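FAQ: What does a multi-protein file look like?

Like this. Sequence, then tokens, then the next protein.
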Amino acid sequence: MDYDLWQICADVTVVAKEAGKLIRNAQPTASTTKSKKNTTDIVTETDQAVEKLIRERLTARYPSFGFVGEESSKAGSEITNQPTFIVDPIDGTSNFVHGLLDVCVSIGLVIDRQPTVGVVYNPFHDELWSAVRGQGAFTSRHGSPMQKLPLVSEPLGGLTSACIGIEWGSDREGPEFDLNLHVFTTLARTQASGGRFVNSLRCTGSAAIAICRVAAGQQEAFWECGCWAWDVAAAWCILVEAGGAMVDGYPDNWDPAIDNRRYLAVRPGEGQREFVREFWSVVESGMRS
């Protein structure tokens, strides 16, 4: 069946901006975050309210489509070939709690398990990223005209000149966390001490925003192992349509599944495969140690 993907993207954008208003109006302040319990309650209530709004709007407009949301779906929920909206109502919840502004609504549509439409919206900066498969990716801020991505498209150098996004995640023990530590320290250390001495490492606190910045060419890469499909589905479409690449966070899988949970996003530009191989060599060295 053929779908009007541009119309779907337009409808999703309207819903994302409506959801963004809820988020902007609900962000905790110093007066509402006196206890961890209060903060947790606010985040949970807002997450659920935003996802409920998104679900109601999209299922009313597209009743035959599936829906997978962070708040309403169990971890590991199966994503089928059915057209399915994959939604993170608030990506960047820790930022949201602490009054930081890297927070977004992330709504992706996958068809045959392939990212097909992506909309990521930051309500605090009024910043929008969107894409339709085969039609390019675009961004706008404060209502400005849409700009085609990437904003920067120079050849990729090696790791030493790269700005790389990373995240610590919430699971901070066990072999996977040990591998994360190895990768982070190897990227950061000087070459004289056995590292790669990358130009900079960035923790954005939102996988979707970080990947969109990679799509724009503002960062060379983003690497995270342990996030879920709702963290990446929308931004994945934006990245690929901008000319970027999404590969497995672990070596040698150039075509990861949407629910792979390990991702390396690389910006547009010549030299992607060489960059990926160099990054994978860091991961592989940690897997051997």
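And here is the next protein:
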Amino acid sequence: AHQNFTYICSNSVAWYSAAEQGYAQSLRLLGENDMEIAHEGTDLKPEVLRDECQQPNAHGETVLLVRTKRLNYLPLVDFYPQDFARTDQAFGFKVGPACFK
């Protein structure tokens, strides 16, 4: 099973932070089974297809692909952006269809 998640950033880090050279600000996804999908501390880590949101002043998209054999992880039901506290920040998102083929 697989599903894409696209984070559209404006002055917000989505996955890798070039300024901090790490993943402390990476967003966290929530699967149907209430399990988190994130860079670390979880059983499942997404594949990064594109990461244009590495800089704090970035405007672009980060596309993550969640691929799993555990069908209860999908569909994605929620997410938590961790770099979203300043008034000049904004984000959008697109969630692709879950494919169980």
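Q: Is there any per-entry metadata?
A: Some entries carry free-text notes. For the entry above: The domain at 2-95 is CATH 2.60.120.1000 (Jelly Rolls).
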